Amino acid sequence: MKNQLLTNSSLLFVTLLLSTFSANAQNVNPEKAPSLARVDDLAEVKTKAQWLVQNQTSSVSNITNITISEGESGLNLIIENDDNTPLQPLIFPLENNLIIEFTNTELNLSSGDSFVTTDVNEDISRIEAVNNDNGGVTITVTGVEQAPTAQIIPSQENLVLGIDTDGMMAREDEQTIELVVTANRAQEDINEVPRSVTVINREQIEEQTRISRDLGEILPKLVPGIAPSTQTSSIFGQPLRGRNVGVLIDGVPQSTNRNAQRDLRNIDPSSIERIEVLRGPSAIYGDGATGGLINIITRGAGDTPFQATTNVSLNSILTDVGDSFGYNLEQSFGGTSRGWNYFFNASYGATGGFFDSEGDRIPPDPQGQGGLADLQTLNLLGKVGYDINENQNIEFSINYFDDQQNSDFTLDPTPSGEKAEARRGLQLPNQPNTENLVLNLRYQNSALGNSSLSSQIYYRDYSTRFFPFDLRTSPAFGNAVLQSEVRSQKFGTRVDIDTPLLPEDKLNLTWGLDYFNEDSSQPADIFDNDIFANSDGLIFQKIGEGFLSPPTSQNNLGLFAQTRWKPLESLTINGGIRQEFVGVNVGDFTTLGGNQVQGGKLDYSATLFNIGGIYSLNDNVGIYANFAQGFSVADVARALRTSPDGSRVTDLKPEAQKVDTYEIGVRGNWDNVQASLAYFYSFSDLGTTFDSNFGIVRDPQRIYGIEGDINYDIDDNWAVGGTFTWTDGSRDPNNDGNFDADLPNTIIAPVKLTAYVENQTTPNWRNRLQLLYSGGRDPQGTGFDLGPVDSYLTADFISSVKLGDGELNIGIENLFNSFYYPNISQIYGGRSRSAAKGISFKIGYSFDW
User: Fold this and answer.
1) Are strands 792-803 and 806-813 parallel, antiparallel or unpaired?
2) How far does CA 389 lie from the centroid of its chain?
3) Can the keyword tRNA processing be found in this entry's annotation (predicted)?
4) What is the mean pLDDT of residues 786-805?
5) Crossing angle of the two packed helices 42-54 and 2-20, in degrees rounded to 10
6) 21: pLDDT confidence band, cut at 50, 70 and 90?
7) For the whole model, what pTM was predicted?
8) Which region, left, alpha or beta, applies to residue 280 given φ > 0 means left and ψ of -120 to 50 means alpha?
9) Contact between 192 and 619 (Cβ < 8 Å)
10) Confidence of residue 782 (pLDDT cuts 50, 70, 90)
């Protein structure tokens, strides 16, 4: 687009020169010249050129002197001519240059027919004036990072242009204002959000994928509050602030009413532009996100007509290079032209076996939660958008994700030592997988009366298959070996309307609704017990089918209103209300244990509130306080799968959970330091834990903690930072007001510390060392998951160097080859006590074209 602009503007000036001979000469006051604002398209150039033709003189004027002096906002460029007739410039930016064109002029300086000065100041590297071959004069002002701006300063004798370098800095400041949509469903400055919010940008995502492509591993290394990775495809045992997390991809909820706990395994990082993590519940997003929200925003088209990126990488675990070998291929392209924009990204990857630091193979499905070893992953993202006019646009997107495990190994039922072991010989027709298809149509209108509208309709088709479970000693499940699969189809819509109630964004109201209908089920394949036993758990031969959890249909309707009020320039107050209506329909069904259950309809409703404010002590520091409520409907299908014979769904209604969370915090943002510190306390009358038989226990529960993070740019070459998370909690098992039972480790993660140091070693070479420490915890009490977990420390190294037309990247995970057990592995213990991966190496090369 920029090259086209230069070519066409040059042709315009040739036309102007030819038109000059027939034009009527007239004097023009340069103060009445067209605005010298930034030129964004060729139409503006033509408009200014037409003005120039109509207002120029017929004689040639000699530019006799060019001088530079200090100005109020940068510097003044003083241009003198021999006849003192007003000079009429055409000014527009081009890449990092400010172009100043004159027709009917000629350089005739005492020093010759050109003018050059370099190293003008820290923002301008060069000013050059030359005679054009086709007549006229061009003055080019080159900015160090971007084009300067200019304005005509009134003068009786010469043309004086104020070259605005302060304006350059102002634009840079505007570009660094971080806007988030997660907190209030409308764009706002993150510094005015009275909540704990972490934003992970595209650059950070790309950097972390040089060691891992799993979001469950990436997020804990960057975000306080999130428990360390389970190193499986499941987030069971990886809470956010001790509670469930909600995940959105472009506004589409990734949860299922039969919770499969795999919400972060629905998209590849190569398709993600940014991730916004809202810690704590939100009353404006509805069911499920009692611990917080992870809002994933996918990539989109750039500003150019076409741009493409190719990325190829190889990976391996160095304790067994051959059997752990894997690779990843990515290709993306997109562009914008004539109101249309498009983007497409495809990625395909394969991982080999996982091996611990001692070189032993890790079972591919450690706790039956879904493994990441011996996995093939495909992700396709496509977007097409159209700008109907300057206020309206529409976009359709499709995202398809498929994870498929294909392994000859399984968990050894009788390991030789303390850690889990893998053995060869698995024969399982349908191995664990996840498949996610999302169709999304979005429409935006920024001029709907005095409001702006953002809306979407979506369809999601989802399925995930688990590894088989040996339930031969469980009558409630038919004493069977079975493999289940969660299936879900969801249709929904979201409508957000942002209405200013006072001018200058002093008071805004965001209001709207969410609705979805979801049909889900959990069918199960039943295998032959004798064949399974005689093969020592290696061969699975299907003999029947059933439902582990009954088919359900769920309707959710949420109506909300959220205000943003700025009574003072230094004070922002947010508050809102949401009314939630949930209906769950369950048909008659038979449990795997053979019990007949009469179906019925369950209705839930809740009114949720939130209010918070942030006060800016100065330009750099803000303090905030917030109260927010969250709401979560019970996993109805799971709760009903062991129902007694002859029971009715309406008699067994599981109760929903409402969570109240209080938070105070401080946030600082200086030129080279960004830091935050927050304390939170959350309470619910109906928390969820499990007894020793994995039965659901509901009783009052409280969770509290402290979170902090800091990032410090020491200079242009060095940066350091890290995060801190401490969480604790207890429950009241007797409902007598005494919270004397510790919450388990699947809910309360141990202390987590992360740290990093980055160095721009040379202009083309950057390195990062990062650490993650997970502490020990020993909760007291009886039931599932009340054993101790031990601490561990890991380190990663990331390096990138510009090479040729692209960039070579190297990542080393578990740099010191530490031997440790992930927390979830320690929680399960026994034969499921799987060690973590040993030192892993990844090398890749990416280039744009």
Assistant:
1) antiparallel
2) 28
3) no
4) 94
5) 20
6) very low
7) 0.80
8) left
9) no
10) low
- Which residues have a Cβ under 8 Å from the Cβ of 563 and sit 6 or more positions away? 507, 508, 509, 510, 573, 574, 575, 576
Separation between Cα atoms, residue 268 and residue 272, nearest integer Å? 7
> Going from the N-terminus, what domains does the chain have, and what CATH number goes with each?
2-171 (2.60.40.3500), 179-183+191-848 (2.40.170.20)
Position 695 scores a pLDDT of 64
- % of the chain surpassing 70 pLDDT: 90
Instruction: Quote the CA–CA distance of 105 and 111 in Å, as a whole number.
Output: 17
Q: b or e along 331-358 (b: 16 or more beta carbons within 10 Å of the residue's beta carbon)? A: ebbbbbeeeebbbbbbbbbbbbbbbbbe
Euclidean distance between CA atoms 437 and 489, whole angstroms: 10
**What pLDDT was estimated at residue 169?**
43
Average pLDDT value for residue range 170-186: 59
- What one-character DSSP code corresponds to residue 228? P
> What DSSP letter does each residue of 657-668 carry, written as one string?
EEEEEEEEEEEE
Q: Any bridge partners for residue 38, and if so which?
A: none
154: number of CA atoms within 13 Å, CB side? 3
- For residue 456, pLDDT beyond 80: yes
735-757 confidence digits (pLDDT tens): 898 998 899 999 999 999 999 99
695-703 average pLDDT score: 84
Q: Where are the beta strands (DSSP E) in 236-339?
A: 245-249, 252-253, 272-279, 292-298, 307-317, 326-337
| Residue 624 contacts residue 613 (beta carbons within 8 Å) | yes
Contact 711, 201 (CB under 8 A): no
* Pairwise CA distance, residues 101 & 796, whole Å: 53
In the block, tokens 């996918």 appear at 298
Radius of gyration of the chain (CA): 32
C-alpha distances out from residue 785 to 216, 752, 823, 825, Å: 21, 19, 11, 11
d(CA 65, CA 755): 57
* Burial degree of 299 (CB within 10 A; 0-12, 13-18, 19+): buried
What's 13's DSSP letter? H
Task: Give the whole-number percent of the chain exceeding pLDDT 90.
Answer: 64
- At 368, give phi and psi (nearest 5°): 75, 15
Residue type, 247: V
Long-range Cβ contacts of 42-45 (<8 Å, 24+ apart): 42/4, 42/5, 42/8, 42/9, 44/92, 45/5, 45/8, 45/9, 45/12, 45/90, 45/92
Mean pLDDT of 510-515: 94
Mean confidence (pLDDT) of the chain: 87
pLDDT greater than 60 at residue 3: no
71: three-class secondary structure by DSSP: strand
pLDDT(37) > 50: no
- Chain-centre distance for alpha carbon 807: 23
Environment class of 432 (CB within 10 Å of its CB; exposed 0-12, middle 13-18, buried 19+): buried
Among residues 99, 60, 101, which one has the least CA distance to residue 82? Answer: 60
Q: Give the other-Cβ count within 10 Å of 679's Cβ.
A: 15
The number of CA neighbours under 13 Å toward the Cβ of 426 is 23
